[in-house]
Amino acid sequence: LGVSRRSFVFASRESIKQRARLRLREFDVGGKFSHLPLPRAAVLLPLTVRAGRLHLLLTVRSMQLRRSPGEVCFPGGKSEAIDKDEIDTALREAKEEVGLQPEKVEVICRLVPGIDKMNHLVTPVVGFIEDTFQAIPNPDEVSDVFVVPLEYFVKPLHYNTLPYKTKSGYLTMMHCFTYEDHEHNTSFRIWGLTAHFAVFLALIILGKRPTFEVDYDLDNLVSSSENNFMNLYASLYEKKKSNL
């Protein structure tokens, strides 16, 4: 019985992953936006299957960090000269921050990038990690590691939205989730670019309408996500020109 139960769990885990892979590959942008003249960064969106559901692994930035201490984010950081591409950057940073070995990540795709507060072009790299992965947080960078069911980013219990104006004057809505983690007995606040990437990932894979407003055309997710990004980039570019 034990063996058949295990093989059933394995089979269902594989089918969950396979469905996600197929959905994600339709959204793979590859290096389409890599040529844009902005400093580059990348984050890893690590997916894992637990108890028959997809979960996302997130980290909490160390309180010692100068920038955004104590904020929830994905493993990641700025590109370095040694990185071939954004995938390299995301994997290198994940290894440095939480001890995730690059060969233990099944990289699926790169999604439409975002632009952070420092005007870095941030590329989200999606990959599967084993459900048995035990994070070893680097205390200089990471104070906590936790997982959230992917479904939480379309059907949250605690959600609000903040109007947000980028430095370039582009007005957008910022998602803000509060997740009660019973394993850690802590509530985590997930917002900003991290929440933006998590919502987009959940919309792609789950194909469900969220319980809150999003600024995508859900019937044309590929084109509307790329259009949104190009509008954001254009507003930044206009700002740069007007500052010259």
Automatic annotation (TrEMBL):
<comment type="subunit">
    <text>Monomer.</text>
</comment>
<dbReference type="GO" id="GO:0015938">
    <property type="term" value="P:coenzyme A catabolic process"/>
</dbReference>
<dbReference type="InterPro" id="IPR015797">
    <property type="entry name" value="NUDIX_hydrolase-like_dom_sf"/>
</dbReference>
<dbReference type="GO" id="GO:0030145">
    <property type="term" value="F:manganese ion binding"/>
</dbReference>
<dbReference type="GO" id="GO:0010945">
    <property type="term" value="F:coenzyme A diphosphatase activity"/>
</dbReference>
<keyword id="KW-0464">Manganese</keyword>
<dbReference type="GO" id="GO:0000287">
    <property type="term" value="F:magnesium ion binding"/>
</dbReference>
<comment type="similarity">
    <text>Belongs to the Nudix hydrolase family. PCD1 subfamily.</text>
</comment>
<feature type="domain" description="Nudix hydrolase">
    <location>
        <begin position="38"/>
        <end position="170"/>
    </location>
</feature>
<dbReference type="InterPro" id="IPR000059">
    <property type="entry name" value="NUDIX_hydrolase_NudL_CS"/>
</dbReference>
<dbReference type="Pfam" id="PF00293">
    <property type="entry name" value="NUDIX"/>
</dbReference>
<keyword id="KW-0694">RNA-binding</keyword>
<dbReference type="InterPro" id="IPR000086">
    <property type="entry name" value="NUDIX_hydrolase_dom"/>
</dbReference>
<keyword id="KW-0479">Metal-binding</keyword>
<dbReference type="GO" id="GO:0003723">
    <property type="term" value="F:RNA binding"/>
</dbReference>
<dbReference type="GO" id="GO:0005782">
    <property type="term" value="C:peroxisomal matrix"/>
</dbReference>
<comment type="function">
    <text>Fatty acyl-coenzyme A (CoA) diphosphatase that hydrolyzes fatty acyl-CoA to yield acyl-4'-phosphopantetheine and adenosine 3',5'-bisphosphate. Cleaves CoA, CoA esters and oxidized CoA with similar efficiencies. Preferentially hydrolyzes medium-chain acyl-CoAs and bile acid-CoAs. Has no activity toward NDP-sugars, CDP-alcohols, (deoxy)nucleoside 5'-triphosphates, nucleoside 5'-di or monophosphates, diadenosine polyphosphates, NAD, NADH, NADP, NADPH or thymidine-5'-monophospho-p-nitrophenyl ester.</text>
</comment>
<keyword id="KW-0576">Peroxisome</keyword>
<keyword id="KW-0460">Magnesium</keyword>
<dbReference type="InterPro" id="IPR045121">
    <property type="entry name" value="CoAse"/>
</dbReference>
<keyword id="KW-0378">Hydrolase</keyword>
<protein>
    <recommendedName>
        <fullName>Peroxisomal coenzyme A diphosphatase NUDT7</fullName>
        <ecNumber>3.6.1.77</ecNumber>
    </recommendedName>
</protein>
<dbReference type="GO" id="GO:0009132">
    <property type="term" value="P:nucleoside diphosphate metabolic process"/>
</dbReference>
